[in-house]
Task: structure prediction
Amino acid sequence: MITQITLEKLEFQKVLYQVANYTITEKGKQLVQNIKPVTDKNFISREGETVNQAKEILIKNVPPPIEFIPDLTETLLQSKIEGSILNSKKILQILNLAASSRKLFKFIKDNSEVAPLFTNYNPDLFIDKMFEHHIQNVIDENGEVKEKASKELSSLRKDIRDKQGELIKSINRIMKSLEDQEMVREDYLTLRDGRMVIPIKAEHKRHLRGFIHSESSTGQTVYIEPEQTLELNNEIISLNFAERREVERLLKEITRLIGKESEKLKVSLERVAYIDSVFA
Result:
């Protein structure tokens, strides 16, 4: 039995942390950092041969197709909760896990002659391409919900753009008139509480009918929403609420799909992390 004092003299933990720097996944890094000395000869022999086979693959200058994957354990647990909604960034991370698992499955299969031991892990790797397609139909490569994720979302976003265009034209006409009379404090539009307003010099605030949203800290500028644009602003706010509801519905749907596959994805996450640690 190796004592803690011996491990400290060997700088065992320091070595592990240096090796962990070569991992790609978060759980792979954790696996390396938490390695403990063992005395089981069969285990040592099997792990040693697995590392040797990984080395043979690397000699061919063919690294495993593993991308950075955070520890998604909690995310996968959350997906199983009825009614839960994962944000789009988390869903993109799940998609990356699924894609990495599928690519790794093919990689192991293609290198089975050089590294037959790795084929033992292939049955645990998640390779459902349709699962990926379902997510890709909703989430783009930047983790944003696609406009074409649903007809409803596409229609809402188009309506928002159209109404915003109308609003800007209307506000600009009003501003041009006020600028000619030197009533505007600044020559640009601004937002207050999500509504487009005009910065008016305080002494001229009675010359523009509308809703006062706020004043500057000096009191010299008043931010007014013209009464001519109140209805347009209301329509845009209403459309934005509808858009958020539709995005939430789509994310909830994808979260439910992930929840159904969460156990398989969890096992796959662990296998990808292990393979990552071996190649490190």
Observations:
- The chain has a mean pLDDT of 89.
- The CA atoms of residues 213 and 223 lie 6 Å apart.
- The longest helix spans residues 230-260.
- The radius of gyration is 29 Å.
